[in-house]
Amino acid sequence: MSDLFRFRPEMRFAPADAAARPLHLVETGADLPATLSPAQRAFAAAQGFTGALGSLCLLPDETGAIVAALFGYGEARKRARARFQLAAAAAKLPAGAWALASPLPAEVQKSEALGWLLEAYRYDRYGTQSVPEARLVAPAGLDAARLEIMAEAEALARDLINTPANDLGPDELEAAVRDLAARHGAKVAVITGEDLLAQGYPLIHAVGRASARAPRLIELRWGTDGPDLALVGKGVCFDTGGLNLKTGAYMALMKKDMGGAANQLALAHMIMALNLPLKLRLLIPAVENAVAGNAMRPGDIYTSRKGLTVEVNDTDAEGRLILADALAAADEEAPDLILCMATLTGAARVALGADLPPFYTDDDDLAAALTASGTRNGDPLWRMPFWAPYEPLIEPSLADLDNCPAGSMAGSITAALFLRRFVTETERFVHFDLYAWQPTAAPGRSKGGLGQGGRAVLGALSEVLGL
Description:
The protein has 467 residues and is α/β, with parallel strands linked by helices.
């Protein structure tokens, strides 16, 4: 594998035969476990342990050695405010193996075990980071291997998003795809630079041509049987805004503008590692939106791969341009499902915040499956509408489509409507407008790049594609 990412051994469960100490979960005001000795009960009382959410009490034996722990599990209404509460214990416990000594409902247990694994993630490429050393023994009945694959995928997405643009441009993103393909026996094809024009990807070329790093369309194919799934991920490795230049404050996080591509790579890893019975096609248009004499200009009009003409009224709305050509290519094969992920609009953040990505689809059954799976897998989503009355907003007077309608309303919806115009042969299409960033650290989610949508999709695929 390249040094862009690695699959971390610390994001694994402890061996099943490990000598594990018990970890008891205690709700606020609840009785302490009956298995504790009188001395341990007295010790917990002396420490003022009440079961408050996130609190921890380490329990010694008569020699002073730590032999068990109590973790405050709080009240249900407070636990509902955030995911992965048990991850806070993983960050505080001493090194070694720990085993849950308190029963939890199966879905809650699965989510908490995943959160424990995710808590071990640290981005340490440029400096040493302290990694939690407490390891959880996978509870009985849990599909531990599947959860470890989910954690691997999350680490992959976070590493790619966290890597600064000087070390992750279109070349390096291509290298990451090739590394993943080699791991799973997939095939990769890449169209680069001027060949994009020759092979019918004018919008990808227009967005990326001003950069010293050549734009490209990266394609990965895997699997020979089953339904066809096409993944399309926005790969803007850095977004200056082009000639509609961003201010410094809005440019500061633009290394994460390839978060859609990172999350699609993470999803592809899960699909391939689990050997799901489907045919996978991943398309990543990878560019850097830069400023130079040959940069696209506001008012320019291009004919897309689909044949639709697009007026560029804002060069900072470049993500939907590169996705348009990639979606058109995916649609030409009429797969059973096209799934698009992109860090596309600030409007989505205004509407739903950083923690709840919107998604768009016309398929009610698909929407229900994604929403339910997101809840089960600690990967929440919220459905937003392809609102047809807003279609005129993306239709300018000179071209078929406008890449950025005037005004400040419904920006995420109009972007989604724009993308839908390029999917005409495929019945089921879903678009995710991600943030892919954790603004402040939370249990299981360190500050920085974040996986969003992938676990929800993975959990819904069996139902959606009949696997």
